[in-house]
Design a protein that fits this description.
single chain; alpha+beta; 13 strands; Jelly Rolls; 2 domains; 2 helices; 235 residues; five-stranded antiparallel beta sheet; six-stranded mixed beta sheet
Length: 235
């Protein structure tokens, strides 16, 4: 008797098994992602150890307002702040200082804040160019402690961001000649000036953090991990 091997793995059966395996792997990956996501979102910051767990999301007290742009043959007009019946932000802001930064493409400035006893709130506005803006809540009593809020800034869609006291700020310039306006509600105090390395947001940058252009001061900022602010101000 001649024995012949019977091929039961027809193309249709093979494709059916492949589809089952693909579905199993796909849903296993989804389940793993959701599990990891839940773990990351529920890990709190530990004020005692100063270990930060950054979570992407909006920060309590930060307000972003976008404004219309009115271009014509002369150029353009745009308003970036208003008080009165329809204010730009739900909180009043009194400007004490107003200054600008102009940055080359690839410049990273941050992460900066002005701490006690002369804590500062500020309003930043994109005037020219484009940038990615980063905000990190470091307020120990804040409901959004450890949150990282990221905003895209472009001169084509003018916007202002109100940054409350205790929220660190930084940005990376995406084009040459990017101009950012800063308004601060108290005088600058060098002894209250605080900050930590932008390495904290490096995974969200379009280029390697080591390749960014930074000031000598920013190059020497401490890491966010274990960061503690100590004012040198005697008031």
């Amino acid at each position: 008797m001649e024995l012949r091997a019977v091929n039961t793995c027809t193309p249709s059966v093979f494709l059916k098994w492949v589809s089952h395996i693909y579905a199993f792997v796909y849903y296993a990956c989804i389940e793993m992602y959701l599990t990891c996501k839940d773990i990351l979102e529920t890990v709190p910051m530990n004020p005692e150890s100063n270990r930060f767990t950054l979570n992407l999301g909006p920060i309590d007290g930060v307000h972003v307002t976008k404004f219309p742009n009115y271009p014509d043959l002369r150029g353009r007009l745009f308003k970036v702040y208003a008080e009165g019946p329809v204010p730009s932000f739900p909180v009043r802001f009194n400007t004490f200082e107003h200054f600008f930064t102009e940055s080359k493409k690839g410049v990273f400035r941050g992460m900066h804040f002005q701490g006690a006893p002369h804590s500062a709130a500020k309003v930043i506005t994109i005037v020219k160019g484009s940038a990615i803006d980063f905000l990190i809540d470091i307020r120990q009593e804040s409901p959004t402690l450890g949150s990282l809020q990221i905003e895209s800034l472009s001169e084509m869609t003018p916007s202002s961001i109100y940054i409350p006291e205790g929220v660190a700020h930084g940005y990376i310039s995406l084009s040459d000649g990017t101009i950012i306006s800063y308004r601060q509600d108290v005088a600058f105090c060098g002894n209250c000036d605080g900050g930590f390395s932008g390495e904290a947001v490096s995974q969200h940058l379009p280029i390697i953090f080591a390749n960014t252009i930074r000031s000598e001061k920013d190059l020497n900022l401490p890491a966010l991990e274990g960061f503690e602010f100590h004012s040198r101000c005697l008031q």
